[in-house]
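Lecture notes, part 5. Sequence design as translation. It can be helpful to think of inverse folding as translation between two languages: the language of shapes and the language of residues. The source text, in structure tokens, appears below.
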């Protein structure tokens, strides 16, 4: 097989890239190791920044998002039994975010790719990227019981942290930056309408809590738990009781309870691989960087990476200049590190670390008071949450 761009991974980044290239008249082949059902059902992110939502619309993939997604114009911060709303449009010149599950975004993009785009091969396991530093990189893969080779002009690895793409970059050329956190998130899906119409981020002496949603009828909620916690250790009533404690306010707000349909624990880490390019191999998304979920940046960073790559490739085709492709890693990493900074700030602002002292607690409350009382501090949070510019 031969194509211009070989894309490893049919998550939101790989699928969005395939759509962007198709619209630009550039052929691509997508290889996905899992089956279609798995890709369309795996629960991941659910917050789309303004730029991500705009990119989906521009790519012709935003119709159902606009019909079924939930536009959010702010978030609520809770601390010391107080409530403070951050108004995104007022602070950012009109920007907002959209609640639309990654599963739904993938369904939309898969349908478009199968109907209009180039080959999308499910259960096609990428085995290795070869000759990445030449003008003719290759992807060895296994599909339908036999090995094959995809010859490309470019390879984009959207295959996550455990994928093969990053392994094609010689270790001597790379640097890795990492921070692990001594806590995780116990997340639940519950068949109950959300108890608030926007996301609620709660800082409490017992730990962080987040009220989110997947739809007007399905709530998504999280509790900070110690690292290594088994979700099965928590009974349903214990989860709801703890959520009530951490979301407690001085007014009459109440948390609605309902049947819990899913429980899982998400570890928390920050991780960046530099560079994001080697020869004609380009890394995108979790293959190159991971952020703690507090800032809702993971999916959006991945989308930003592939938008940057598509623009650079189109620029080279139209002008003959490789300037933007050559700058891919540097361009993406500027945005990545701002997102890492924002996610770290949100994580340390709202989570109580093991062994935290009364001094640490007072500092957190002082930081939250600053956001609630300072237009500049509140604007910085709103700008970061709704998304950093590309480039």
């Amino acid at each position: 097989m031969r194509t211009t761009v070989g894309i490893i991974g049919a998550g939101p980044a790989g699928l969005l890239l395939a759509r962007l290239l198709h619209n630009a008249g550039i052929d691509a082949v997508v290889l996905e190791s899992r089956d279609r059902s798995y890709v369309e059902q795996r629960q991941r992110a659910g917050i789309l920044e303004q730029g991500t939502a705009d990119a989906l619309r521009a790519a012709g993939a935003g119709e159902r998002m606009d019909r079924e997604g939930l536009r959010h114009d702010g978030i609520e911060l809770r601390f010391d039994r107080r409530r403070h709303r951050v108004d995104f449009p007022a602070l950012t010149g009109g920007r907002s975010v959209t609640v639309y599950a990654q599963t739904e975004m993938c369904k939309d993009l898969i349908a478009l790719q199968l109907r209009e785009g180039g080959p999308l091969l499910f259960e096609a396991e990428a085995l290795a990227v070869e000759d990445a530093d030449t003008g003719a990189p290759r992807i060895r893969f296994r599909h339908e019981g036999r090995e094959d080779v995809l010859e490309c002009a470019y390879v984009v690895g959207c295959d996550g942290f455990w994928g093969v793409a990053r392994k094609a970059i010689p270790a001597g050329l790379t640097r890795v930056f990492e921070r692990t956190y001594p806590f995780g998130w116990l997340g639940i899906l519950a068949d109950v309408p959300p108890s608030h119409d926007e996301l609620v981020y709660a800082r409490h002496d017992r730990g962080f809590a987040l009220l989110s949603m997947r739809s007007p009828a399905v709530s998504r909620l999280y509790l900070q738990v110690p690292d290594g916690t088994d979700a099965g250790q928590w009974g349903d009533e214990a989860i709801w009781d703890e959520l009530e404690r951490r979301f407690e306010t001085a007014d009459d707000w109440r948390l609605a309870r309902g049947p819990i349909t899913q429980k899982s624990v998400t570890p928390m880490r920050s991780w960046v691989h530099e560079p994001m390019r080697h020869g004609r191999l380009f890394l995108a998304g979790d293959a190159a960087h991971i952020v703690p979920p507090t800032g809702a940046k993971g999916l959006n960073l991945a989308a930003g990476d592939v938008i940057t790559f598509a623009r650079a490739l189109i620029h080279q085709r139209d002008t003959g200049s490789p300037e933007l492709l050559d700058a891919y890693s540097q361009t993406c990493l500027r945005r990545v590190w701002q997102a890492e900074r924002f996610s770290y700030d949100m994580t340390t602002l709202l989570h109580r670390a093991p062994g935290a002292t009364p001094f640490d607690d007072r500092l957190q409350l002082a930081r939250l008071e600053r956001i609630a009382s300072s237009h500049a501090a509140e604007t910085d949070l709103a700008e970061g949450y709704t998304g950093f510019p590309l480039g």
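The translated text above is only one of many valid answers, since several sequences can fold into similar shapes. The radius of gyration is 21 Å.
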